[in-house]
Amino acid sequence: MTIANLIPLPATRADWLKLRQIGIGGSDVAALLGLSKWRTPLDVYISKIETPEESDNASMEWGRRLEPVIRQKYAEAVGMEVSVPGVMFQHPEHEFMIADVDGIRTDGRIVEIKTARTQQGWGEEGTDEIPDYYKTQVQHYMTVLGINSCDVAVLIGASDFRIYTVESDPELEALLIEAEADFWHNHVEPQLPPPPMTIEEMKVAFPVSKKAAVEATDEVFDHVEQLALVTEKLKALKEEEETHKAAIQAAMGEADTLSHLGQVICTWKSSKPVARFDSAALKAAMPDIYNQYLKTGAPARRFVLKI
């Protein structure tokens, strides 16, 4: 069993965000492994080297607001007190691994608090069947603290309270240590960003083209073929959409509402006229003024599929 280093948590959220830059936290791990729906390795990298921003959304806000309530419900359900540590844990050997856990029971078990809109990804209560991006998070916590089990208390859909138990997995632990060490030593410390993964990241990483050609590997060519198939499917679906929409609009005529058995199923209403600036008319009438206020934008790359 390892004994983690303890770092007192700061008083403000801004300072807490800055403290998280000293290492990789549990919420970073899924992104590093490509399991996150919300973040990429490049997102994690940026969060570690740039001044942290106070970003928030409704789900994050309500998760924080409900955390004490869910923690208390869990304590009542298991008949044990759950304390909030008030410290950041740091792995004694792999110091780039940090953990800010939601609670620790009186017997030492970690407790992680979650909220979820739906039960998708959550299995039968009492099992370890939780979404993979949360499973890697709690395994990270168990690795840092040297603890063998963690309970996940989740409130699903604001009314379905469940408790899951995840045991430490030595193989997953080794995988996490290796992946996090690689990310920290090969990207964060030398400040070398990982490769972009999303379309938006590609636009930032490669904003301008140059006259050159590269040979596609078999893997990349497979992506091209799959993209061609998807593009054809989308085109067919778009044509089908237009067919159905035209039939519906023909049935509605000038009426703005379509009902079925007393229920409104479609509307087709006129919008207010929109006033738009006629730049073409200005250019024709006053070309000097038009050119005076022209602003050159950043170059943009257009992707074209050729097969």
From TrEMBL:
Keyword RNA-binding: no
Family matches, as SUPFAM superfamilies: Restriction endonuclease-like (SSF52980)
One Pfam family recorded for the sequence: YqaJ
Coiled-coil intervals: 227-254
Keyword Transcription attached: no
Keyword annotations of the record: Coiled coil
Domain of life from the UniProt record: Bacteria
YqaJ viral recombinase domain boundaries: 15-146
InterPro entries in the record: Lambda-type_endonuclease (IPR017482), NF-kappa-B_Signaling_Reg (IPR051703), PDDEXK-like_dom_sf (IPR011604), Restrct_endonuc-II-like (IPR011335), YqaJ_viral_recombinase (IPR019080)
NCBIfam families: phage_rel_nuc (TIGR03033)
Protein name from the UniProt record: YqaJ viral recombinase family protein
